[in-house]
Amino acid sequence: MSDIIKIDKRIIDWKIADEKKHKISEIKKDRPEALDGKTYALKSELIKHTLYITINNIKNEDGFVRPFEIFFNTRDTSKFVELQIITRLISAIFRRSENGVFVIDELKAVANPEDTGYFRSPREGETKGRYIPSIFYEIGEIIEEHFISLRFDDKRLKKEKIAQDIKTGMTCPKCFEKTLRRESGCDLCLSCGYSKCG
Hints:
The protein has four helices and ten strands, in the order E-E-E-E-E-H-H-E-E-H-H-E-E-E. The chain has 198 residues and is an alpha+beta fold. The strands form four sheets. A three-stranded antiparallel β-sheet has the order 3-4-5. Strands 8-9-10 form a three-stranded antiparallel β-sheet, with no helix packed on it. Helix 2 runs antiparallel to helix 3 (135-149). The longest helix is centred in the middle third of the chain and has 17 residues, at 80-96. The model is unreliable at 19-28 (pLDDT under 50).
């Protein structure tokens, strides 16, 4: 059983003892005074007012830039609690992980109950519109765009970027992107993962 230690001062840094390796690794918990970032304006039919998404980045000792935190701001209060929870969870993941790309897939998998999304008109670079199942799907798209803008070294994001750059190909019947490829007798979509063989 470990001893109880009384702490009289504010904690600004802490350490974790790794019992297997018998060494101590330091984890800094302080947020820098200033961070570089980018704000995206998301106009969606699923909320009344524009949702502003700010993603701030941090650079580690090796010069590797990654997202560190995310904030939402909107005049629409109908989803305030959900957005506040998502902000805190995503920021916690970004702060504690060198690669938080999996958050994108989790957000894009969220659908409104009773299929109450909407069909969005094509954006710049798209040939067809697409069905938007939830506001969280659109937040996932913004985060994905941000990761790609940082040239994040992730295999899935590289596939997405290649798919965006190549303007040729078949249109996926599920997501309506021109990212459907024929491989070994099967159709595979590089955007949403749709596949069909035969």
